[in-house]
Amino acid sequence: MPDTRESAPVPGGAPSHFIRQIIAADVAAGKHGGRVVTRFPPEPNGYLHIGHAKSICLNFGVAAEFGGVTHLRFDDTDPSKESLEYVEAIQRDVRWLGFDWKDKLFFASDYFERLYGYAEQLIRAGKAYVDHLSAEEIREYRGTLTRPGRNSPYRDRPAAENLDLFRRMRAGEFRDGECVLRAKIDMASPNLVMRDPTLYRIRRTPHYRTGTDWCIYPMYDFAHCLSDMIEGITHSLCTLEFENNRELYDWVLAALDTPHRPRQIEFARLNLSRTVLSKRRLIELVEGGHVSGWDDPRMPTLSGLRRRGYTPEAIRDFCERIGVARADNRVDIALLEHCLREDLNRRAPRAMAVLRPLKVTIVNYPADRVEELPARNHPEDPAAGSRTVPFSRELWIERDDFREDPPPKFYRLAPGREVRLRYAYLIRCVEVVREAATGAVSELRCTYDPESRGGEAPDGRKVKATLHWVSAPHALEAEVRLYDHLFLKENPAEVEEGKSFTEALNPGSLEVLRGCRLEPALGAAAPGDRYQFERLGYFCADLKDHRPGTPVFNRTATLRDTWAKIEARGGAPPQR
Ligand code: ATP
Ligand code: MG
What we know:
It is a single chain. The protein contains 13 helices and 25 strands. With 576 residues, it is α/β, with parallel strands linked by helices. Among the domains are: 4-267, Rossmann fold, CATH 3.40.50.620; 353-468, CATH 2.40.240.10. Helix 2 packs across helix 11, helix 7 packs across helix 8 (246-255) and helix 11 crosses helix 12. The structure holds adenosine-5'-triphosphate and magnesium ion (MG).
């Protein structure tokens, strides 16, 4: 089981949840012999996102708690959009998140023959029929919430005729869409799902695993409950939109009189502010070129979050804190970022980097001198050790840290003012050099106090600001990518008539800075390594584009924790 670290109780977040309570009661009652078997059933038609992480943590977490197991099952019954690329990416992401399905890897497509057998059994029992109504007619006959449906004229065919027709469907004697297999339930049921739902349809699309073996494919409602039954799943956890399907889930198993009956339990799906979590929309972002791919660091996919610098621990902590509820809700993305900052604050070594460099020359520092100054890798963790940073006559500081006309409360560098350089010396700005052509500030000339090594003056005089810096001749040049939320709107899934959700995209979600300067210790960074660049935020070496000679860093998060502020103001529930 992954380590779910101790964290302060979340306002509004319950320590336990209703699914855990249901399972605990079942175990106590000796149901299923006290066994707990859950499954995570992704359809391999896209990459996993943070919403799936909620489901993964729930399924694996709750089973492990009760000494049970969790299956990874690919729900691959619709060949049109499924692929091996997605199967592999999903396995990589579940493993990265910290979960292990051991040898319990399953594919619904492996059950095609058995599912077909169950369908014949239903037909023989007079509980399913082949219908020749068109898709449109079926919809028309179904009725509405206020109007009962009508029976199809094909509904009362004898079982033998249905069996023959179904076998011919399988044999490829009908065109796509010419007929379907439907369950014979109740066209007047108040639950629309129960009005003779389709169980099989004809689709001549090659399947990424079974090729052209089949031209009929089972529908979700038929395949899912039976896959759960075949695998001995005890608790089948799914999202709320399947609530109405539960009656059908139970009906299929009862109609086949299966010895094992899993129980479907629904929970609220995760919605996150300033992002979209539907695969259809995520695919649109990728295919429309709005992002660079599924693993674009702005994407809410697990591969995107990984590339952004998220840790699996932070994501698991987030999933723990949001809890599991029965009602739909939207979680503030600031909570996810808060979990990330908490984790990175603990584990990320500190380093100095200057993103928008301004040259500083220390006029009273000898040109040929270089000092190696000790710097701690982590302020609270002595075990993280220390390194040295070179100090020399020519430095880079952040352009933002200098103002010619400092406004009130701007305590950083200004003409005539003294500041501290972290781990180094106190310096005072004595001259501002400008570009002749534009008048823009091109360099600051400063003096340093040789008595202030380490950053404190012997006379104890105070300076208000401490700046980060990098020695110019030793600096590494780097590209740094600054990311912000992908959407400006709180709920980008809420779209006006005739508009696309992509109109709410944040045009400033990516800013690429070139010519950034890094302290030389960062030359050892490997792709995926995470740091806190002092005063700037958390950054990670890009998994794809970073090379030791040509560093590329992604900004994982700034240091501003808006969630901590919300909590400090008296708390806010994680869900709203
Ligand atoms: P989408 O609606 O984005 O296409 P999906 O539900 O069709 O997603 P699946 O691959 O079928 O995607 O999902 C696998 C499992 O993950 C299902 O049990 C599903 O209920 C769960 N899941 C998907 N999205 C979320 C979410 N946002 N929050 C929690 N669980 C989710
Ligand atoms: Mg689905």
